[in-house]
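Problem 12. The chain below contains 162 residues. Write out its predicted structure in token notation.
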Amino acid sequence: MSTPFKLLFVCMGNICRSPAAHGVMQKLVNEAGLQDQVLIDSAGTGGWHAGSMPDNRMRKHASKRGYTLDHVARQVGSSDFEEFDLILVMDQQNLSEIRHFCGDPELMNKVKFFCEFAKDRPEKQVPDPYYGGDQGFEQVLDIVENGCGHLLEHVRQSSREL
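Solution.
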């Protein structure tokens, strides 16, 4: 069996955007029967929510769409740059902050904006819904659903025998 393709989604606290992307992508991977070939995780640039479940509002909105968000928040670590094949940040601030965790500048080539895969959306960054209302969480899920669909195709095309 080939080595699994490993994806890491990153936002600020790992309680809204990145766990949403993690949950949506996991469902798509499971439905495609690729759960042994594509491994998914998420993390935050900050550690203040480490050990927490995703935000209740995001879990509620995701659940209405059929997604389970049960990831426990953690902070990005330097080993993530060695371990993961592709690291997807949600916004420019995440990109700036994640650089502090990368010991080898060459490994920053693994880091991409999530919205590079949200092909049918106008957004260039996934907005943080934390301080907003329901519409913000719905918007994040709209972006994430679109991007994860395209991301799965990218993984299939670029990875080992999927």
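Discussion. The first strand starts at residue 5 and ends at 11. Students who got a different answer should revisit the alignment rule from Section 12.3.
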